[in-house]
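We include the pair:
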Amino acid sequence: QVQLKESGGGSVQAGGSLRLSCAASGRTLSTYFMGWFRQALGKEREFVAAIRWPGDMTYYTDSVKGRFTISRDNAKNTLWLQMNSLKPEDTAVYYCASGPGWCSGSACYEGATYDYWGQGTQVTVSS
């Protein structure tokens, strides 16, 4: 049974930082691709960032490039999302997700490519 559990969300002012973590059990992260998605109130879920093997290649949506960094600690089976220079438009519930094998190109951005999801953690950025 694969379980993903996010933590690290909270409320910050614009310009602040948060670090989200996703602890995985039942799956060795190093051989799967992982992603972060978010869903703001009243909006559709959107892709934020992904990381895949080999070489831990990373992907980001344009709105977070240069501000967010996705990484993982294979020894701890944990995925991270470092979020800096937060903006009010980053307010959303953030979900981590895992997919089998490896993804390529646009598939890494698609939620349907991922087969396990966490419950989400709320991030609120005030102006």
